[in-house]
């Protein structure tokens, strides 16, 4: 059996796809890999690049399908995968040559359902590493997966991505877990949360060798983050509670996360100063302590979850500061 299937969804990626594929051929475990290139109805030269690459590399499978979005493309790749483990890579990203070797060895040596690591964001303003929120080689088992890993996902988006993991294929297939096709953003987090309830062991890896190419502006990053928070909130709440986390705890911790993200969003998207954003929030909520230390605000934000969420939604819709505050 092939050790690893790597699924790459592709849509109009001709500019960076050759760099991505080149980094695949340089993987130290390339001989033990299967590449599944899913051309999702590209209108540029991506399809031809895929076919030419497959002609030179017999361990490559190409799927051509009408455009249906990244989730459908990844799901199509899952159906084709034959590897013991599955990895995912975006068509404009690159990897260190030992990236998959590290993840595979950790998963195999500990018999884990998936291994996970950090990432490096390659943005126009420079590279920024995203370190692990666990020490390297930490094995998390059974109930601790929910208590430590899932709980951390409530307030830290680091492990939302499937691209910083290799996942046991049987875990996906036997439990019929697929990417949701009815949402257009935040699908990675839903997929990971859906898998967690079936995991018995996961392991962390000391690597930040996945280079996520992100060329958008800081406002675009903030806008995307807000869209994820708003569009998947109800789904996430249901998934977190289905894992056994207390509903009030989930709501409370998400409230704190929403509030801190809101201050950042107001500053970026509405282009107000951070001081003004915090002042406006403080004036409307009447909680000076909230600005001093977020830990003091837990009871407050839990009680005001609806107001915080309404304010966040209004800000996301790009209303003026006056109209945003009027929502309250």
Keywords:
328 residues, alpha/beta, Spore Coat Polysaccharide Biosynthesis Protein SpsA, Chain A, 2 domains, eight-stranded mixed sheet, four-stranded mixed sheet, 12 strands, globular, disordered C terminus
Q: What's the gist of this structure?
A:
With 328 residues, this protein is α/β, with parallel strands linked by helices.
Domain count: the total is 2
Sequence stretches where pLDDT stays below 50 over 5 or more residues: 286-298, 318-328
What is the chain-wise order of helices and strands? Answer: EHEHEHEEHEEEEHEHHEEHHHHHHHH
Count of separate DSSP helical elements: 15
Number of strand elements: 12
**What is the CATH superfamily label of the largest domain?**
Spore Coat Polysaccharide Biosynthesis Protein SpsA, Chain A
Structure notes:
There is one protein chain. The protein is α/β, with parallel strands linked by helices and 328 residues long. It has two domains: 4-214, Spore Coat Polysaccharide Biosynthesis Protein SpsA, Chain A, CATH 3.90.550; 219-326, no CATH class. The protein contains 15 helices and twelve strands. The chain has an eight-stranded mixed sheet with strand order 3-2-1-4-10-6-11-9, sandwiched between helices. α2 links the parallel β2 (33-40) and β3 (60-65). α7 (187-196) packs parallel to α9, α8 (218-231) packs across α14 and α10 runs parallel beside α14 (305-316). The longest helix has 23 residues, at 247-269.
């Amino acid at each position: 059996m092939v050790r690893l299937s790597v699924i790459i969804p592709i849509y109009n990626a001709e500019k960076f796809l050759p760099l991505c594929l080149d980094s695949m051929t340089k993987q130290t475990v390339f001989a033990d890999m299967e590449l599944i290139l899913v051309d999702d109805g590209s209108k540029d030269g991506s399809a031809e690049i895929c076919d030419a690459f497959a002609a030179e590399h017999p361990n490559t499978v190409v799927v051509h399908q009408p455009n249906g979005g990244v989730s459908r493309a990844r799901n199509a790749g899952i159906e084709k995968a034959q590897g013991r483990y599955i990895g995912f890579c975006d068509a404009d990203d690159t990897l260190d040559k030992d990236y998959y070797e590290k993840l595979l060895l950790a998963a195999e040596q500990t018999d884990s359902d998936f291994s996970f690591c950090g990432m490096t964001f390659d943005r126009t303003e420079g590279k920024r590493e995203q370190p692990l929120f666990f020490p390297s080689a930490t094995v998390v088992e059974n109930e601790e997966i929910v208590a430590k890993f899932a709980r951390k996902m409530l307030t830290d988006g680091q492990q939302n991505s499937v691209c910083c993991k290799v996942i046991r294929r049987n875990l996906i297939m036997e439990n019929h877990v697929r990417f949701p096709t009815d949402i257009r953003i935040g699908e990675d987090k839903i997929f990971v949360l859906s898998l967690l309830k079936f995991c018995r062991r996961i392991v962390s890896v000391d690597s930040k060798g996945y280079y996520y190419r992100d060329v958008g502006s800081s406002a675009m990053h903030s806008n995307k983050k807000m869209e994820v928070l708003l569009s998947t909130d109800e789904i996430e709440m249901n998934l977190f509670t289905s894992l056994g986390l207390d509903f009030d705890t989930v709501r409370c911790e998400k409230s704190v996360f929403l509030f801190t993200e809101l201050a950042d969003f107001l500053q970026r998207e509405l282009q107000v100063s951070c001081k003004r954003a915090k002042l406006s929030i403080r004036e409307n909520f009447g909680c000076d302590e909230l600005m001093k230390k977020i830990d003091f605000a837990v009871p407050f934000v839990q009680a005001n979850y609806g107001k915080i969420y309404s304010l966040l939604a209004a800000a996301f819709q790009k209303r003026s500061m006056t109209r945003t505050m009027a929502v309250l």
